[in-house]
Structure formats: structure tokens, C-alpha cells
Design a protein that fits this description.
single chain; about 70 residues; mainly alpha; CopG family transcriptional regulator
Length: about 70
């Protein structure tokens, strides 16, 4: 996990370090928490209230639609 921290933008690294200090956590523990919480937020945005099976079906339908040739337009 420390290799992830080394590749971060300095501003992000500083923000994460401030969280670590405020919580009394090690950097690795903080990175794990930040990634986990960020994933929860992003997953909820992607799902838009849909259940996992519905998200999968919608993703497959969108992928299939993208394979169709473009129409002539109006």
C-alpha cells in the first residue's frame, strides 16, 4: 500500500496524512479507509439505487447497444 502513497499527488498525500494524524491511524490504515469509503460513494453513484443484478443487466444492455452500428441520424 505504501507504493500507492508514493505515487499520489502531493496535495492528496497531505490531505490523507492529515486524516491519519487526526484519527491516530497509520498511513496504510488511512489509505485503506479512504479507498473503502470512496468506493462506497462511487458504487452508490453508479448503482443509482439499483440492486447488483439490475446493475449487471443494465451494464450488459449498454455494452450490447454500444456494439450496434451508428444510425443515420435525423
Amino acid at each position: 500500500m505504501t507504493s500507492v502513497a508514493q505515487t499520489l499527488d502531493p496535495l492528496l498525500k497531505d490531505r490523507i496524512a492529515r486524516i491519519a494524524e487526526a484519527r491516530g491511524w497509520a498511513m496504510e490504515e488511512t489509505l485503506t479507509a479512504v479507498i473503502e469509503q470512496g468506493l462506497f460513494v462511487l458504487e452508490s453513484q453508479v448503482r443509482g439505487g439499483l440492486e447488483s443484478g439490475e446493475v449487471h443487466a443494465l451494464s450488459e444492455a449498454i455494452a450490447a447497444l454500444r456494439q450496434l452500428p451508428q444510425g443515420q441520424g435525423f
